[in-house]
């Protein structure tokens, strides 16, 4: 076997190894990004819960202030107009709190979806790496076998 034959075979092996290493690194990067997206989803949900709680406290302060002002005005805190205003403020606060929670859940779900896609992409990258490595190896072997016919002994091909 001559040096050029060995170089052809070694080139195929090295190319296959490089393809596998590159695919593996890309897959690991995608999986790490997926993990970060899952953490981001959890943080979005937690943030929206904290904001909804803050909104509930704010609504309670507004209602307390309305009740105190109504009682101080002499009209009475149980006046139907005051009660209607307070019910409207309470409903608006509850709606805002639920909207904040829904937005956090929606963003979290989107980040979870992106993470699952990244994991899928990582799996596909690894599969493509193996296919590319096999192709590189076979290409190198093919080039080597053109020069390495003596290595396998005489060939008795018949054409035509």
Number of strands: 0
Distance between the termini: 29 Å
* Main sheet: strands, sense, barrel: none
Residue-averaged pLDDT: 85
SSE arrangement, N to C: HH
Number of helices: 2
| Share of β-strand residues | under 5%
In short:
By secondary structure, the chain is mainly α. It has helices at residues 3-73, 80-147.
Task: Outline the fold blueprint.
Elements: H1 3-73, H2 80-147
Helix pairs in contact: 1-2
What descriptive keywords fit this protein?
160 residues, mainly alpha, 2 helices, rod-shaped
Structure write-up:
The protein has helices spanning about 5-75, 80-145. It has about 160 residues and is mainly α. Helix 1 runs antiparallel to helix 2. The radius of gyration is 34 Å and the shape is rod-shaped.
């Amino acid at each position: 076997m001559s040096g050029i034959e060995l170089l052809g075979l070694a080139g195929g092996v090295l190319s296959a190894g490089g393809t596998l290493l590159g695919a593996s690194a890309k897959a690991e990067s995608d999986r790490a990004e997926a993990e970060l997206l899952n953490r981001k989803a959890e943080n979005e949900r937690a943030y929206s819960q904290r904001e909804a709680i803050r909104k509930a406290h704010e609504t309670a302060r507004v209602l307390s202030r309305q009740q105190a002002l109504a009682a101080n005005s002499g009209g009475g805190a149980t006046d139907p107009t005051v009660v209607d205003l307070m019910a409207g403020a309470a409903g608006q606060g509850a709606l805002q709190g639920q909207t904040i929670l829904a937005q956090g859940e929606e963003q979290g779900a989107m980040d979870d979806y992106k993470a699952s896609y990244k994991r899928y992409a990582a799996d596909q990258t690894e599969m493509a790496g193996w296919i590319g490595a096999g192709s590189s190896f076979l290409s190198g072997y093919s080039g080597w076998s053109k020069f390495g016919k003596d290595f396998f002994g005489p060939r008795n091909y018949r054409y035509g």
